[in-house]
Design brief:
With 136 residues, this protein is an all-alpha fold. It contains 6 helices and no strands. Helix 1 packs across helix 4 and helix 3 runs parallel beside helix 5. It is globular.
Length: 136
């Protein structure tokens, strides 16, 4: 596990410790795990993580929900390898990892981030007009 990934897993673990997931949140998370076919988070495999990412990609989950789902997985004993897989994945294919989008950019990891060019000042120049003689 790279140093950066270790730091990201630690950051996720810190975030997880700060959370107090109520029963409603746990039900939402349970629905995702169930749809992905995960029965025991502590025994989750990379294939389970891939399936979970597919479920998330097909959903309209918010970045906060995804971050909380991963935090809950950390609390419930997901292995460091699985957490690393989640954090280093790029669901939307924009070249930014899930960890970068959640913890650095604050962007949605389900939607590609396209750099927006800075607004350019529009210079309006008179368009060449022709003098038309109207005949009635």
């Amino acid at each position: 596990m790279s140093k950066t990934t270790q730091l990201q897993v630690q950051e996720l673990a810190r975030f997880a410790q700060e959370q107090d997931f109520n029963q409603q949140y746990r039900q939402y998370f349970g629905d995702v795990w169930e749809e992905a076919g995960v029965k025991d988070i502590s025994k989750m495999t990379i294939q389970d993580a891939e399936q979970t990412l597919k479920v998330l990609a097909d959903s309209e989950a918010s970045p906060q929900f995804i971050k909380s789902l991963l935090a809950q997985a950390a609390i419930d004993g997901a292995t460091p390898q699985v957490l690393e897989y989640f954090l280093s994945s790029d669901i939307d294919g924009d070249g930014r990892t899930l960890a970068q989008e959640l913890f650095q950019d604050g962007t949605n990891p389900l939607q590609p981030d396209t750099p927006q060019p800075p607004p350019k000042a529009q210079v309006l120049s008179p368009s060449p007009t022709e003098d038309f003689d109207w005949e009635i």
